[in-house]
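Exercise 7. Predict the structure of DUF1788 domain-containing protein from Thermoanaerobacterium thermosaccharolyticum.
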Amino acid sequence: MKTIYDRLDEIMQRITKESFRENTGLGNEVGYYIFDYEPKYEMLVRDYVQFLKQKINGGNYGFTIKEFDLYEIMLELLETKGYLEKNFKMEQDKGSEFVFNATKKALRLTEKNDLIIQYIRDRVKKGDVVFITGVGKVWPIIRSHTVLNNLHQVLDEVPVVMFFPGVYDGLELVLFEEIKDDNYYRAFKLVERY
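Solution. The predicted structure, encoded as tokens:
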């Protein structure tokens, strides 16, 4: 089994290959990838994502990494709509489950005009590599398989890498190595664990 450090180092090798960014070798299928990792390495992975962004975006690699932290996007959208403070009050009065459902409706999750998906789509251009982070922070309001399924419909020219604190076996996503999120089989593993 590879160490987390070995696996993180392989990310740079993978994403800097021109074939990765052009989605060649995948039967011209859109390049969606998952980097799964043990949840105990969350802070290490976050730091490494920042390191990669600084190195690539500050260098001469011919592409830009665009990171989208799902939790931060959710907070920004709720704040913009004037719902964030209301959510805090609502949670005190009606409980977490009520707020989760209200937030899903406010963000139009799983609808054609899903605000999270629109947010990402509107900020990506050809030549970018998209990093999706914050998966664990935003659960259970936003589910990773839902983001991937909906994003797949609107982003088809750039590779997308989701950083997933759990296990992805090529078929199912298991968040925190305990919570079965749902089946998702359109993504490739970015770096194998073995």
